């Protein structure tokens, strides 16, 4: 069993930055791909960014290209999402998720592959 706890959300003006963190329990964290998803009010959950177990491969949504960056620290069992040049359209609840299939080379973008989810953290970007 893996527990994930997100933090770092908040209210920020357009053009600003936030860094989300996701702390994980369990020694197997270092073998999991990790992903960030978000869900805006009235919309379906969407993929944002993912990173493989070693941090050598990442995948991202076109909407965040050049603005967001994912990273991980396996020693700290934590994955990060650095969000820069934030836009009002980035407003959503952000969730981190773990894909427990060990040592996958390329992280998946499909939410169905992520078995463990955090409770989410709210990000609000004002115009």
What does this structure look like?
The protein is mainly beta. The chain is built from no helices and eleven strands. The chain has strands at residues 4-7, 10-13, 18-24, 33-39, 46-51, 58-60, 68-73, 78-83, 92-99, 116-117, 121-126. The radius of gyration is 13 Å and the shape is globular.
Keywords:
127 residues, mainly beta, seven-stranded mixed β-sheet, four-stranded antiparallel β-sheet, 11 strands, 46% strand, globular
> What average pLDDT do the residues reach?
97
Overall strand count = 11
Query: Could you name the ranges where pLDDT drops below 50 across 5 or more consecutive residues?
Result: none
Helix/strand-derived category reads mainly beta
Helix tally equals 0
SSE arrangement:
Layout: E1 4-7, E2 10-13, E3 18-24, E4 33-39, E5 46-51, E6 58-60, E7 68-73, E8 78-83, E9 92-99, E10 116-117, E11 121-126
Parallel strand pairs: 2-11
Antiparallel strand pairs: 1-3, 3-8, 4-5, 4-9, 5-6, 7-8, 9-10, 9-11
Can I get a quick summary?
The protein is 0% helix and 46% strand. It is mainly β and 127 residues long. The strands form two sheets. Strands 2, 4, 5, 6, 9, 10 and 11 form a seven-stranded mixed β-sheet that branches. The chain has a four-stranded antiparallel β-sheet with strand order 1-3-8-7, with no helix packed on it.
């Amino acid at each position: 069993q893996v527990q994930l706890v997100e933090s770092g959300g908040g209210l920020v003006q357009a053009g600003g930055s936030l860094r989300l963190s996701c702390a994980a329990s369990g020694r197997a964290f270092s073998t999991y791909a990790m992903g960030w998803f978000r869900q805006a009010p009235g919309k379906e959950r969407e993929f944002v960014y993912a990173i493989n177990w070693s941090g050598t491969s990442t995948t991202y949504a076109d909407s965040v290209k050049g603005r967001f960056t994912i990273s991980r620290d396996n020693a700290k069992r934590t994955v990060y999402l650095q969000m820069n040049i934030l836009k009002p359209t980035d407003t959503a609840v952000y969730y981190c998720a773990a894909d427990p299939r060990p040592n996958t080379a390329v992280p998946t973008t499909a939410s169905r592959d992520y078995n463990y989810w955090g409770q989410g953290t709210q990000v609000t970007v004002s115009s």
